[in-house]
Structures
1.
Amino acid sequence: MQEDFHYYATYCAAYLAGYSHEDSLAVAYSAQLVDLCSVSFLDRIGGPRQAATTQLQAELTDASTDPIELQTITRIWASFHFLPYDLYARKAGCSRLYLWKYRLICQPNGALVKETVDLAKGRGLQAAGLAMHILADTWAHRNFAGTPSLVINNTDRRFAELLPDGTERPIAFRHALSAPDDLEKDLFTNTMHQSDENSIMNLGHGRAGHLPDYSFLRYKYLPAWADYEECVKDNPADYYRAFCQMIYALKYLRAGEDAFQPDTYDEAAAAPYEEEIRAILEKRQLSASQDWKAFGEKLSGSSIEAFDLGRWQAQYRAAADKDATFLGRFILAALAQKSMVTNRIFASGNLVAGFSVNLKEKGFKGLRDFSALIRYFSKEDAQ
């Protein structure tokens, strides 16, 4: 997904869930920040590098593929963008390493979605926004894994767009990273094929380019993990489900008393606007930001300011208690999420994301985690 959904659509979902305009902006800001909180960003503000929720293209280009670096990459991308669906999935006739990577394939409504939302409960707007980014990405990024893997993430070169009139149109790819995708020609940018199993080119949905990020696209393709059998992806349907699930999850985080349940959607809250929402999702365009912005401003009657990465940086740098700042609360939420997901992967017997300690149960052990996380996990509420 892109800024159009993570920032503007998340604002709309938060407002429909009962948040005020200002609180909806804070949730939306935090959701979008997940795509920008890199090591480079954290170095600029003096934050802990372990809180990185993404890796910039330049950072990935410079990354090695030794075991330690692969674990670092996996902890980031599996925790925040490709949340694993079933860490105990079975597949016959494969090696242990293949099975470890296969179990990292992302799908919506897995057990870790519930844990992600529950972890954000009572811990502030930043944690809520971070959780909404992860939840939404389980719909857009389904069928791919957040670890470099040719045998999982590779695709056959044959892709076809499924048009509304029932016809199909071949999709072509190029590797010009500076060129925008050409919707008129169905020409998109993807990563270059690399036969190295652990190449960065085989991370996530790189082999499918930005196709998962466009809400209007319906397409079919042949993924490696499914033995190159045909798979159909209906982005408009998935994005609508993601939007309705965000409303439900945000209501739970704001005031819900009952337990969060996966595969549950607040379609009633979206129903008065369903036609308008679906029209935005179906519109053939590279970015739907302006349409979501207009819809959100109609909902709230307030202006939605553009996302500004620098907005909270001075506050964080100057603060004596950085954990109490906007970015400090986001950083703690990110560290907690990464710790939780990494621990669940490790506890399943899977070493692709490295070793982990369950901080909530075992306490601080000095393993590149922060003692602040112990306080975070022990809190009942957050400001």
2.
Amino acid sequence: MEAKNSIIHVILTGGVGSRLWPLSRKSRPKQYLEIFEGKSLFEMTVDRNSYLANKVMVVGNVDNHHLSGEVMDKTKTSYVNIVEATPRNTAAAIAFAAFASNPDDILIVTPSDHIIDKMEEYNKAIKEAISKAQEGFIVTFGIIPTKPETGYGYIESKGDKVVSFREKPNQTTAKEFIAKGNFLWNSGMFCFKASVLLEELKQFQPDVYEKSKAVWEASENGFLDLNLSLEIPSISIDYAVMERSKKIKVVPAAFSWSDLGSFESVYDYLVSKNHPVDKNGNMVIGSGKHTTFLGLKNTIFVYTETANLILQKENSQDVKDIYSELEKINSDLLN
């Protein structure tokens, strides 16, 4: 007899990683780049949760699901494949996973492009989240911050209660958050019972609930219909449910975490794994060719076949502006 409820690892593979151009392209977004000790972030995400869950779901899109499939084959992982015809943000993506589950299944939802270390702390946080989810709470993971980071949203907490969600702060506000000591980084990871998430979505965002349900019911082998999908409002799960529901708990977690959202965070990670940097902190990514930096400090040289990027590490958040400019002229360099 199959247990009446499963623990399902739901992997969201949406993003294009515009701040990691030219490494990250539409044809191979950052979560599929095998630049982390011969593995991709996606593969590391699958590995890390394979012990915690007895079922895997991958929510992807028409452009990337074959890349996910390659990783699932490589790791010999069987999975439920949900393929979005068009990106509709995280509320819809998570709703599809919940509709594809039994009501009592516990879902652990994670992005596919995060780096996580200190696995003991990670496993402890997941266990705690599962037990709160079984009690009917929607759990979000708040990372105990190590520095006043402006690239992340924050959760103001009191024990496991959420006081408020905060947008990405400026440097001054980030320092205030850290000084107060009860602010956590919002990791974008969640844990809940499928039925509880759907009930809350139905209450607070009935249009997303109804339209996602219609799309799911019309799906064939996990492939979702484009015209029906376009009717779903594009809203994040944070806005749709997390910031409104009274059933939210936060697990303050001490595992080390980064969303590798910028070359600065990739740089820090690679340094921790002994990737070479010269005495002035200059780094080459993507090429084994001998490169000399003269009169430069903390410069990152990103090499790819069709485009190179040379940047000051401190300017890494601005890469998305280059991406936007290339998008306006419909450049092949994004593909």
